[in-house]
Amino acid sequence: MYDALIIGLGCAGYTAAIYTARYKLSTFIVGAEEGGLGMTAAEVGNWPGNIDITGPDLMENFKKHALSFDAVTHKIARVKSVEKVAGGFQLTLDGGETVQGKTVIFAMGSNKRHLGAPGEKEFSGKGVTYCATCDAFFYKGKDVAVLGGGDAAVEGAAIAAQVAKKVYLIHRRNEFRAEPYWVDKVKARENVVFVLERNVVEILGDQKVKAVKLDKPFEGSDTITLDGVFIEIGATPATEIPKALGCAVDQRGFLTVNGAQQTTVPGVFGAGDITTASNFFAQFTTAAGEGAVAANSVFNYVSTAGAKMPA
Questions:
Q1: What CATH number labels 128-231?
Q2: Given 64, 162, 209, 224, which residue has the most CB atoms within 10 angstroms?
Q3: ∠ at Cα 260 (258, 262), nearest 5°?
Q4: Which pLDDT does position 306 carry in this prediction?
Q5: Is 247 a catalytic residue?
Q6: Is 131 a catalytic residue?
Q7: Where are the alpha helices (DSSP H) in 44-161?
């Protein structure tokens, strides 16, 4: 039985593994995909100590650091369920393998939110994608749309504009929620067209995406002809498994944690975008901080044989 089971191979999960390993705790870290949403960041300009680094490179650094410890066992697999067992918890993986541990840290991050418009499902992978920074290269010299007004959308539009012929940045509001740095950057691109106070109500095409339909006309038409649509309208916390275990979530579905990153189930902790901590400020730095705190709390929990954690 491991001392710590960590679910999630992103910033929070790997940071937690680094700390549990340094505490000499046997650690099993698992996730379906390496790097999480950190892999979608084409440019990371706010990680202390690195003025300019890409998300994939930063995540690779996290992974190498965590796996440099003999105490860490790493596996790429989807976790189907977590249940309580004598002495701790048991993970069941997709292939049926089970792994047991004294504690659990949920660090699964979030899942990309879908638009829910007609044509989205039909053209997924045929012009509809959910990561502009990942897939912009495939639309070199073509016209695309980026939907959304947060960091992911505005950064994605700036990245896509480097290769695409034209980028329509479609946002339902008149102002952006994104970091001013990215807003200024995208406004400096001459091939970005701002389509504000509009919603995409349908994605049109034949074998692949051909256009999007808006809820009200833009420049005399309610359709925009294009080749690709990047849907960047936020994400929802991946809390299905914690909820099934009995962990409380808030009204928006985020995993409820206290100052020690402890959930409402003793021995279970959370870190990263999945939690109610850090004022919902989903950053590499906050995820890493929460992962470190969660690991420290695991150490305290294991050291005191499951004694009650502070509120």
A1: 3.50.50.60
A2: 209
A3: 60
A4: 60
A5: no
A6: yes
A7: 55-67, 132-135, 151-160
